[in-house]
Design a protein that fits this description.
By secondary structure, the protein is an alpha/beta fold. It is built from eight helices and 13 strands. The longest helix has 16 residues. GO terms for molecular function: hydrolase activity.
Length: 301
């Protein structure tokens, strides 16, 4: 480990990572079987959560041990937000080159350099406010990420202040499909190839309505040139998976709506393939979003 790091719990405190305009914390987990040019997954916790708690619930570090993955856990501070929510709806924290997105970008750059990570194999996922901030990162720094997974989140720039955020979370209003597309295209000067998109949401989510999941899909459909109905619908662990493939046959967008699930990250803790631990907003529903997201990104067998 770099000399700037100090261990605590299962994660390791990343002491230095360049400028930190968003005043965020950073932890890492580098599996013992991680090898040079391996992949990095950035994991963003939800409101009222910590990096350590989200790691325990989701099982990302356990999967990292299986597959040789490096993990980066940006963490919010209560001095920035009283419920430890990423400030995805604030103008200073939703633009390239500023606030929380730049802090996270600088963390990624530090970890990539420290551990000789393949820069073409960097991915990001998050739940709730972390899911919404995942949308921010994919739009503002698309050149950094090969793929992103948004769990119980919202589209990029669907809200520009706290009042709008509360309304959008309930599934009301929001930008048109044309505007959603334009917001991503206008967030950077990037012109592709764009990150792949994985979307997960509970059908009974009363905190962030699942209308937001469909809006996220629509935000990225035109960008990936896969407008219209899914290429196919299949069943995975008893749940429907919708998939959109581009003209090359590559899966570029997937969506899981977990029937009967509330607000949280879907996990499957039991059995040979089990990962994580059930907790508040870490919901045992018989499917591991962590394992399937890693598979979508080609990180696991």
């Amino acid at each position: 480990m770099p000399p700037s790091s100090v261990s605590h719990d299962r994660l390791t405190d990343l002491k230095q990572f360049g400028t930190d305009p968003g005043s965020l914390h950073a932890d890492t987990y580098i599996s013992k079987n991680f090898t040079k040019n391996g992949p990095l997954v950035v994991v963003l916790h939800g409101s009222t959560q910590t990096a350590e708690g989200y790691d325990r619930g989701s099982g990302w570090s356990a999967l990292a041990d299986e597959c040789g993955i490096a993990l980066l856990y940006p963490g919010q501070r209560k001095t920035n937000n009283p419920i430890s929510s990423f400030n995805w709806f604030k103008s200073g924290d939703s633009r390239r080159g500023d606030g929380e997105p730049l802090s996270i970008r600088n963390m990624v750059e530090q970890v990539v350099d420290d551990h000789s990570i393949d820069p073409s194999r960097v991915y990001i996922t998050g739940m709730s406010s972390g899911g919404a901030m995942t949308s921010v990162m994919l739009a503002t720094y698309p050149e950094v990420f090969a793929g992103g997974a948004i769990i119980a989140g919202l589209p990029y720039r669907s809200a520009d202040n706290l009042i709008e955020a509360m309304v959008r979370m309930k599934g009301y209003g929001g930008p048109s499909d044309h505007r959603l597309d334009a917001l991503v295209r206008g967030a950077s000067t990037f012109d592709g190839p764009w990150p792949t998109i994985s979307v997960w949401h509970g059908s009974s989510d009363s905190i962030v309505d699942n209308a937001n999941a469909d809006s996220i899909v629509r935000q990225w459909q035109k960008i990936h040139e896969v407008e219209g109905p899914p290429t196919r619908v299949e069943e995975v662990d008893g749940f429907p998976r919708q998939v959109w493939c581009n003209t090359d046959g590559q899966e570029v967008i997937e969506e899981y709506i977990i029937k009967g699930m509330g607000h949280g990250t879907p996990i499957m803790a039991g059995g040979d393939e089990g990962l994580g631990k059930a907790d508040k907003y870490m919901l045992e529903v018989g499917i591991s979003s962590t394992r399937h997201i890693a598979h979508f990104w080609g990180l696991s067998e």
